[in-house]
Amino acid sequence: MILGANHIAISVPDMDRAISFYCDLLGFQCLADNRWPVGTESADKLFNIPNTSGRVVHIGTKNLLIELFQFSDCEPQIQKFDRPVIDHGYTHLCLAVTDVDAEYERLSHAGMEFHCPPQDVAPGVRTVYGRDPFGNVLEFEESKGRTEPYQPPV
To answer: What is the pTM of this model?
Structure first.
C-alpha cells in the first residue's frame, strides 16, 4: 500500500551552493547531513554504480522533504542548464507560495533566473517558472485550496 510521497532527490555538483540556495534563499531547513565513503556496499547496490562516495543532505519545509546528493569518485553527466521542460523525465518541482509576485521580485533580486514574470493560468492560480543554480526548474505557485498538505481522514 502506497501511503504517499516521501521525498524528492536532486543530484547537485556543489552541495554548499545548493544549501545556500534552498535553505538561505528559499527557506528550507537543513535536517541531516551525512557522507558515505568509497566501498560502501549498500550505496553501490542502491545506486547501481560501483565505488561512489558522496554527501547527502536532507532539507525540508512543513510538508516537503528534499534529498540533495553530491556524488564523488565518479563522473556524473552535467545536465544542460537550459534543458526544456518538454524533455522526458522529471520536469520541475512546484513550491506553494502565498504571494507569487513578491517571491518573484525577491528571488529575481537575489539573482534567480525566471522564464517570464508570474502568469495567471487558471481562476485563482498564478504561477512562475525559474531555475535553481544548476538548471533544475522550480515552479512557484499561488493557488487557492492547494497550498496545505493533504491530511488523511482519521
So the answer is: 0.80
